[in-house]
Amino acid sequence: MIEIALKRLPHGEGLPAPAYATTGAAGLDIVAAEDVCLAPGARHAVATGFAVAIPPGFEIQVRPRSGLALKHGVTCLNSPGTIDADYRGEVKVILANLGAEPFQVTRGERIAQLVPAAVEAARLIEVQELDDTVRGTGGFGSTGRHSLP
Ligand SMILES: O=c1ccn([C@H]2C[C@H](O)[C@@H](COP(=O)(O)OP(=O)(O)OP(=O)(O)O)O2)c(=O)[nH]1
Ligand SMILES: [Mg+2]
């Protein structure tokens, strides 16, 4: 369990805090801080009304809610969105409406979920040759039924 500082912004006053819907939930549900109508094919960075300070070595992933995706075709366009540990601005949810009908986002409605995760920092070491593997350079379905020659 890690601790993440959360600052409510003026336009987020009165909204429910991010919360786990059940004890075993992986994601903290977050709600919209604004009303916005998403036309089919449209996208919008939806305000949440809060900012966070994540401890070094961690990130928060912004993930879609499957119910919105299945019922309405509404998803997070950049899924999973990345909240960096050093970001202090408002957390926003880039919602896209891939459905055929307009979708009304209503202030207070749950629109996405936050999943905190540990991140490893890497130091890149430039080399002339990489080690051999069975896969080699094959990818993009190379092991499947319709594998390319
Ligand atoms: O769904 C998201 C994704 C990002 N962010 C914020 C927090 C994150 O730390 C910052 C930058 O995100 P990212 O690195 O994905 O975007 P970028 O296009 O690389 O922008 P930057 O140049 O600011 O890093 O934007 C959100 O609020 N919601
Ligand atoms: Mg970036």
CATH architecture annotation name of the domain at 25-118: Distorted Sandwich
Taking all Cα atoms into account, the compactness measure Rg is 19 Å
Terminal-residue CA separation:
48 Å
- How helix-rich are the residues, as a percent range? under 10%
Strand content: 35-45%
Largest sheet: 5 strands, antiparallel
Uncertain parts: none
CATH fold descriptor of the domain at 25-118: Deoxyuridine 5'-Triphosphate Nucleotidohydrolase, Chain A
Mean pLDDT: 96
List the helices and strands and how they pair.
Elements: E1 5-8, E2 19-20, E3 28-31, E4 36-38, E5 43-53, E6 58-63, H1 66-72, E7 74-76, E8 81-83, E9 90-97, E10 103-105, E11 110-118
Antiparallel strand pairs: 1-5, 2-3, 3-11, 4-10, 5-9, 6-8, 6-11, 7-9
The protein binds deoxyuridine-5'-triphosphate (DUT) and magnesium ion.
In short:
With 149 residues, the chain is mostly beta strands. It is built from one helix and eleven strands; from the N terminus they run E-E-E-E-E-E-H-E-E-E-E-E.
Descriptive overview:
The protein is mainly beta and 149 residues long. The protein has a domain at 25-118: Deoxyuridine triphosphatase (dUTPase) (Deoxyuridine 5'-Triphosphate Nucleotidohydrolase, Chain A), CATH 2.70.40. The chain is 5% helix and 38% strand. The protein is built from one helix and eleven strands; from the N terminus they run E-E-E-E-E-E-H-E-E-E-E-E. The longest helix has 7 residues, at 66-72. The termini are far apart. Deoxyuridine-5'-triphosphate (DUT) binds at residues 62, 78, 81-84, 87, 91-92, 94. Deoxyuridine-5'-triphosphate binds at residues 62, 78, 81-84, 87, 91-92, 94.
